[in-house]
Design goal:
The protein is of the alpha/beta class. Strand 3 (68-74), helix 3 (78-89) and strand 4 form a beta-alpha-beta unit. It has a 6-stranded mixed sheet, sandwiched between helices. The longest helix has 21 residues, at 162-182. Helix content is 43%, strand content 15%. It contains 12 helices and 10 strands.
Length: 335
């Protein structure tokens, strides 16, 4: 088996990110003991989970001698913002292809938050319509750059391939060391499951690190059956990269799809409540697209008694707070 240390990696933030006890939230819910892994904080561009993936992906781009990175996402993509930031840190040009796919959004959604920050960070931004093909637009941008004499390196949506997933395999190792420092293991880990790389990396890393916690991915854009295929494929590819046995890995894919509707980028009442609870109980800002839906699952599990009183939950806060500024019309209900 290959070690994580054998893969090239740049530095995009400080590690480890802290684990904090959410004492007031735990008391408020009257059930499990809830902790938060603060992957929302970092030294570049407001931080977030994509920094872990980009450490491996940008290192791969540099090793390949590429001068330009191309990546894509939704108009308010956290991944796009942080790709632009890491590229700026390492002297790479950055081209973002952003899809305007969430319907009926405000002027702020189209011009503020992550969309605005990507431009501030020096990225060249192309916005495509909701009905356009993101994959075709990426390919066209890649070919145009090659024709102009550039050497582009394409990073997939969310940084979610086997190399990017190494970032969260490494995070699982980090959690294992922090469990030892805390003197007690976690019973449950909750994380958002979107493009799949964070979830798949944690899945593989949990086996590497010997974590005993049940890992639950909370879907944010699709039903569990569809998400399972994505996570399973990515986990298998990541394990293969590490020359690691994958037998039984799929049995540990646990998904909660109770909070993704009405769809990607569209908050629901449970998510809006989670934003309010996180802010007023703990001073922690959740985002409207990802972490609010994952925290809604934690709140629901505690209230319904699905997780026993006294069990320990670790919530992976993957970041995304800049998107709050693009959802003011919905978030007025959180005040």
């Amino acid at each position: 088996m290959k070690s994580l240390e054998s893969f090239a990696r740049v530095k995009a933030s400080f590690w480890p990110t802290p684990i904090e006890h959410m004492a007031r939230l735990s008391e408020m819910l009257g059930g499990p003991d809830i902790f938060v892994k603060r992957d929302d904080i970092g030294t570049l561009a407001f931080g977030g989970n994509k920094l872990r993936k980009l450490e491996y992906l940008v290192a791969q781009a540099l090793e390949a001698g590429c001068s330009t990175v191309v990546t894509a996402g939704a108009l308010q993509s956290n991944h796009a913002r942080l790709t632009a930031a890491v590229c700026a840190r390492y002297g790479l040009a950055c081209h973002l292809v952003l899809k305007d796919e969430v319907p009926d959004r405000s002027l702020a959604y189209h011009n503020s938050a992550n969309r605005f920050l990507g431009t501030i960070l020096g990225a060249e931004v192309e916005v495509i319509d909701r009905d356009a093909s993101l994959l075709d637009a990426i390919a066209e941008r890649e070919e145009a750059l090659k024709a102009s004499g550039k050497a582009p390196f394409v990073i997939p949506v969310g940084g979610s391939n086997a190399v990017g997933s190494l970032g969260y395999a490494n995070c699982a190792m980090e959690i294992s060391r922090q469990e030892a420092d805390l003197g007690q293991p976690f019973d449950h880990i909750f994380v958002t499951s979107g493009s799949g790389g964070t979830h798949a990396g944690l899945l593989v890393g949990s086996r590497l690190a010997g974590l005993s916690a049940r890992l639950t991915g909370v879907t944010i854009s699709r039903p569990a059956a569809d998400q399972r295929v994505i996570v399973s494929d990515l986990a298998a590819q990541t394990a293969d990269l590490l020359a690691m046995d994958v037998s039984g890995l799929d049995e540990n894919i646990h998904l909660d799809d109770g909070f993704y509707l009405p769809g990607y980028g569209l908050p629901n009442p449970s998510a809006l409540e989670a934003i309010s609870i996180g802010a007023t109980a703990e001073g922690i800002l959740l985002d409207p697209v990802y972490t609010s839906k994952a925290m809604a699952a934690v709140v629901s599990a505690a209230r319904e008694g699905a997780i026993a009183r006294g069990e320990r939950i670790l919530f992976i806060h993957t970041g995304g707070a800049p998107a709050l500024f693009a959802y003011e019309e919905e978030l007025t209900t959180c005040r």
